[in-house]
Amino acid sequence: MMLFNLIYRSLRQHALSTVVTAASIALAAGLLLTVWVVKTQSQAVFAATNSGFDAVLGARGSKLQLVLNAIFHLEASPGNLAAAEVEAIRRHPAVRTAIPIAVGDNHQGWRIVGTPPSFFAVEYLPGKKYAVAASGKLFTAGTREAVVGAFAARRLGWKVGDTFQPYHGLAYDPRAKHEEVYTVVGLLEPTGTPVDRVVWIPLEGVQTMGGHDPRTASDVSAVLIQLRAPAAGLMLDMMINKQGNKLTFAYPIGAIVADLFNKISWADRVLTLIAWLVAAVAAGSVLVSIYNSMSARARDIAILRALGARRRTVFGAVVGEAAAIGLLGSAAGFAVFAGLAGFVASLIRAQTGVVLEPLQWNPVFWWGPVVFTGLAVLGGLVPAWKAYRVPVAETIAPVS
Amino acid sequence: MPLLEITNLTKTYARPGGGMHRVLEVKAFTLEAGAQLALRGESGTGKTTFLNLIAGILAPDSGGIVLDGQDLARLGEAGRDRLRAETIGYIFQTFNLLQGHNALENVEFGMAFGRGVDRAHAESLLQRVGLGDKLGHFPRQLSTGQQQRVAVARALANRPQLVLADEPTGNLDRRHGRESLELIREVCRESGAALLLVSHDERVLAAFEHMQDFSAMNRAIATQ
After folding, report:
1. Residue A259 domain-assigned?
2. B32: distance to nearest CA of chain A, Å?
3. Which of A15, A260, A369, B43 has the fewest CB atoms found within 10 Å of its own CB?
4. What is the number of domains present in chain A?
5. pLDDT at residue B6, as a whole number
6. ipTM score assigned to the predicted complex
């Protein structure tokens, strides 16, 4: 109890340096927690994001580009598929569902994707189907109706009955406005997937939009595929990717996304390294802050020793003080993390539609504070050793 | 059997420029339980070293210090720390109060490393030395005389058998010095603790029934 009292009193007596040092640890802990949580969660969430499909069929090109375009609604389409190719894959016995999509237009940067209404009948996550908010409905094929993803609708401020005109291309160019006017007939409930960022219109709308090449009016950008059995994916992969040379079959989607993360893992490593460097600096700040105060504290330590405190007691008090600063900093680090990770998560959602939940349990929530407290304790060892060696008689002089 | 028995005690310090300097050589010294004894000696005669050796703050080069039946020379540092925490109260010339702690906490530190904190006892001691209304005052908020009283209360906090006082009135004016000395002697008497006081102040020494000349007792000084 006395040890805790000593630690508490010392923290109180050196309140300013305690706060500053704990704040530096809080920043380091917040940064590390954010990097770690965003890294692990985004890998898991992105790899699990497939909008309910097993594979994507597209023009010959990069599988990653195909998946980014068709599932994440990022990147440009690698090319078009002819209607006959769509029909061929639809009729393949290994394919349970084949839903075409067409891209190429936007509204103020929000991507417009054409698809048949059957797209919304697919479970985007096991047991979860798309739902249209009350007072709305799904669009009807062949009409100039639109259903808008929840995030896009909120950002655009749209409601049912609003109208808009698409712009040509994937990037917003005010001069490239199409003549067609679409009416919003439904707003999708949030799904936490890239679907939330898209303005959905009937497939034919994109295919026959004024200004588009009439010769490609029946082409699509990609076909989203559900397989009857996983083994069929390998068979189609062999057939389309290895034996054919016209199309690309991206399967399995999760592995392709994971491959993306592998390719950019150096960025993770750099961020993690920076976080650890900040942590090392924070541990150094514990050392410096306590060490610098040791000269002023030497007399108090000598008095305590003269009153019967053992060397290990004063050593423990200094180490305990460092640990307390580490714990305080770690606790405050969670606040930094909550703010920082919340910001990063909102950024990722705005850019990809993928929803991260940074506050969901992650093992770093226990080992992070343990590591930071441990680093603070390491930083406290040097001043604690100095306290351990304080010469009592000389320090409490005068001598008579 | 005396409370404190010292035989052939020596202590040597290393000189800053090299070589050794013997500062203490006491052949024999005893103090009975509950007794009050003053040691006279000028500055630099090794009085503080003598008290620090008895308190176990310093270890002797040779000789025996038997306190309450325990030979300090045979105890390790941790053992001496424990004995000091449980058996000895120490009043310093400069009081040595912990500036970041209030009066009550300072007194509690006097018992913290021994048998544990007894807040009621700490409060009663401060009441006894006339500071019952200043428990929460920090040393800087107290007069010099009041700080000395806190130091006296702290020395008695662990219910010691021996109180060591090193020039306890050296920083006080004549009136406060006299009052403080009376207080120290009274509270030691009340608690049954023996008192060993060192001073060079004849007025202080004159107040004691029993007094010894430390300069003569310390052969390292006497033979120089």
Report:
1. no
2. 23
3. A15
4. 2
5. 96
6. 0.93
Q: Is residue A122 part of a domain?
A: yes
- For residues A32 and A336, the answer to whether their CB atoms sit within 8 Å is no
With 60 as the cut, is the pLDDT of residue A380 above it? yes
Q: Is the residue at A77 inside a domain?
A: yes
Residues A216, A152 within the same domain: yes
A283 and A372 fall within a common domain: yes
With beta carbons under 8 A apart, name residues in chain B contacting A308.
Answer: 81-82, 84-86, 112-114, 158
Boundary-marking domain end, from A251, A281, A307:
A251
Which of B104, B109, B167 is the best substitution to test chain A (most A C-beta atoms within 10 A)? Answer: B109
Same domain, A172 and A86: yes
Please write the tens of the pLDDT for every residue from A251-296. Answer: 999 899 888 888 888 888 888 888 888 888 888 888 888 888 887 7
Share of chain A above pLDDT 90, in %: 61
**Cα separation, A134 vs A131, whole angstroms:** 9
Tell me, yes or no, whether A258 lies in a domain: no
Domain residue ranges in chain B: 33-59+70-213
Contacts of B49 in chain A (CB under 8 A): 393, 399
Residues paired with residue A128 on neighbouring β-strands, in sequence order: A125
Least confident of A6-10, A15-19, A67-71, A245-249: A6-10
Is B14 in the A-facing interface, judged by CB distances under 8 Å?
Answer: no
Mutate to test the interface with A, among B52, B154, B162, B200 (most CBs of A within 10 A): B52
**For all residues of chain A together, what is the average pLDDT?**
90
> Considering A251, A282, A309, which residue would you say is the last residue of a domain?
A251
Angle at the Cα of B180 from the Cα atoms of B179 and B185, rounded to 5 degrees: 100
List the one residue out of A378, A285, A384 whose CA is nearest residue A21: A285
**Cβ contacts of B166 on chain A, cutoff 8 Å:** 400
| Partner-chain contact A307 B47, CB within 8 Å | no
- Whether the predicted pLDDT of A167 surpasses 70: yes
Place of tokens 């061929």: A88
Whether residues A360 and A385 share a domain: the answer is: yes
What are the tens digits of pLDDT across the range B113-161?
Answer: 988 899 999 999 999 899 999 999 999 999 998 999 999 999 999 999 9
Q: Which residues contact A48 (CB under 8 A, 6 or more apart)?
A: A254
Please spell the DSSP secondary structure of A349-396, one letter per residue: HHHH-PPP-TTS--THHHHHHHHHHHHHHHHHHHHHHHHHT--HHHHT
State whether A287 and A192 are in the same domain: no
Residue closest to A37 by CA, chosen among A340, A326, A376: A340
A387: left (phi over 0), alpha (psi -120 to 50) or beta: alpha
Domain that holds residue A100: 55-251
- The CATH H-level (homologous superfamily) assignment of domain B33-59+70-213 is P-loop containing nucleotide triphosphate hydrolases (3.40.50.300)
Please determine, for residue B224, whether its predicted confidence score (pLDDT) is greater than 80.
no
Which amino acid does the sequence have at A40? T
φ, ψ at A327 (rounded to 5°) = -65, -45
Read off the pLDDT of each residue in A136-147 and give the average, rounded to a whole number: 94
Q: What is this structure's pTM?
A: 0.76
Confidence of residue A44 (pLDDT cuts 50, 70, 90): confident
Q: Average per-residue pLDDT in chain B?
A: 91
Judge contact between A54 and A251, C-beta under 8 A. yes
- Give me the percent of chain A exceeding a pLDDT of 70: 99
Q: Are residues A121 and A183 in the same domain?
A: yes
The answer to whether residues A247 and A312 belong to one domain is: no
Residues in B touching A398 (Cβ below 8 Å): 48, 93-94
User: Are residue A42 and residue A59 in the same domain, yes or no?
Assistant: no
